[in-house]
């Protein structure tokens, strides 16, 4: 059984909201999201923004209805609802390098030869790094779900996702592609799931062959690093940025397992802009596809609401108070303090610090009840 987490049903309350920029609502609507109820691919809800975020001065924001209070503690459903409203006015995030179209076609052909498929996702955003067409491509083929970068989330995050997938009967492994944690377990499980292949071959009088496992997933989720750790040598190019692997490559693991390393695949059009923003925050999408200042402003607002981070983590890092304001004002203050007013550099520092765990290790998604 495979978990389908490729999209979210969204039911937005009919409340009139300001569209002048990022804004926190004074009260949260009832939870309208479900991580276990996913629409079919043909019913994917399109969430796109409008004009680019408008930057204003501290004084104009203080005198308007855009004054934001970040001290309330939201549950994860409330956070998703708020994130939807924050992204409504932003320029849509879209990224589809030319090599992905070719890769997708080749990968779908290669998947027909697979005994088992290893789908790698970013443990910080498991829902957002699930391709909406993956279930359709795999059909009934056996699958192992790998949540990579487990070292970048908290124990509470890990336990929440482990419990979620256990209830669904999904085979899930938490891994750290940089240090190799979880890789040996992954190799054993792949051989176990595909063990029946050679039983059938022997029954037909054929010689046994290595188990074929395809490693698939979004860009920069750690597929190549995971394979290199499994092989204990650098066989696949890898780097901490999306788009490094450009072509499919078969590699042999011992005598019993063959692995297919594939480039990251992503939808041609990202309809779920909540997921797109999280991909940008976690560096799982090309930087040219989004406005760094807009994404950093949203990250600040998200961190202010996540109990494991909060305003305290931001203050401890930059000595800037978030009480009474969030998002763009915080970016502006940091720009004046460290970068001579350069908001782009300030925003890049915030995103870089998050990716390096300077605010603590945490997921940006949790299973929604």
Structure explained in plain terms:
- The chain is of the alpha/beta class and 369 residues long.
- It contains 13 helices and six strands.
- Strands 3-2-1-4-6-5 form a six-stranded mixed sheet.
- Helix 5 links the parallel strand 2 (142-148) and strand 3 (172-175).
- Helix 10 (292-303) packs across helix 13.
- The longest helix has 14 residues, at 98-111.
- The protein is elongated, with a radius of gyration of 22 Å.
- It starts with 57 loop residues before the first helix and ends in a 14-residue tail after the last helix.
Report a brief summary of the structure.
With 369 residues, the protein is α/β, with parallel strands linked by helices.
Morphology: elongated
Helix content: 25-40%
Widest sheet: strand order?
Answer: 3-2-1-4-6-5
Quickly give the structural class: alpha/beta
- Can you give the mean pLDDT? 75
Major sheet description: 6 strands, mixed
Number of helices: 13
Percentage of residues in strands: 5-15%
* Computed Rg: 22 Å
E-strand count: 6
Elements, N to C (H/E) = HHHEHEHEHHEHEEHHHHH
Fold topology:
Elements: H1 58-62, H2 76-87, H3 98-111, E1 116-122, H4 134-138, E2 142-148, H5 155-168, E3 172-175, H6 183-193, H7 196-203, E4 211-217, H8 223-231, E5 249-253, E6 257-261, H9 273-281, H10 292-303, H11 310-318, H12 328-338, H13 343-355
Parallel strand pairs: 1-2, 1-4, 2-3, 4-6
Antiparallel strand pairs: 5-6
Helix pairs in contact: 10-12, 10-13, 12-13
Features:
alpha/beta, 13 helices, six-stranded mixed sheet, 369 residues
